[in-house]
Specification:
four-stranded antiparallel beta sheet; about 5% helix
């Protein structure tokens, strides 16, 4: 009997069927009218999700076929991911319904950092872990417990790091403490 050297009769057909080369590493920007940046706020399933767009309007996202199914490993739509959507301007929207948008591109975390630098990118689209907290002052807040330490009950003292020599901190009263002396 003859020995099978090749496998089955379909052994070469499925070898590179789903292999795709990476297209480009350049950042895709919204340049055409109707393209907009958005953040996924809710995933419904069945190729649908809610997105908060750059203009502050919540729209229904339609996930196209190229972002679903077998080849979705590199372009997976997750909660709070930043995406590029195409607004359906030609579609008539019924009263009380959300307008629809099509998914065009999914940004990776490294690309979101580059998007933050763009002037037409709205900061409300950033996930909570990437949002800048400009309204918070740097420093440590210490709450005194009362007793003989000189503080009344519930009184707080803030330690704010300013431009001082290395290993020094200025207390809220203007008093400077050196960590080398401690």
């Amino acid at each position: 009997m003859v020995r099978n050297q090749r496998g089955g009769n379909k052994n070469r057909r499925g070898a590179r069927k789903n292999h795709h080369e990476p297209i480009s590493t350049a950042l895709r920007k919204a340049v055409i009218e109707g393209e907009m940046y958005a953040r996924v706020t809710k995933i419904f399933g069945g190729g649908m999700a809610d997105v908060l767009c750059n203009d502050g309007i919540v729209r229904l996202l339609v996930i196209r076929r190229s972002f679903r199914g077998r080849n979705k490993r590199d372009n997976f739509v997750a909660l709070h991911s930043v995406v590029l959507v195409g607004i359906r301007q030609w579609e008539v929207v019924a009263v009380g319904k959300k307008s629809k948008a099509d998914l065009l591109y999914i940004y990776s975390k490294s690309q979101v950092y580059e998007l933050k630098k763009l002037e037409d990118f709205n900061a409300i689209l950033l996930p909570e872990d990437m949002a800048d907290n400009d309204n918070q002052e740097g420093g440590i807040q210490i709450k005194a417990g009362g007793g003989d330490d000189g503080f009344d009950n519930g009184e707080t003292m803030e330690l704010i790091a300013e431009d001082t020599p290395a290993n020094n901190i200025i207390i809220g009263d203007g008093e400077e403490i050196s960590f080398d002396d401690i």
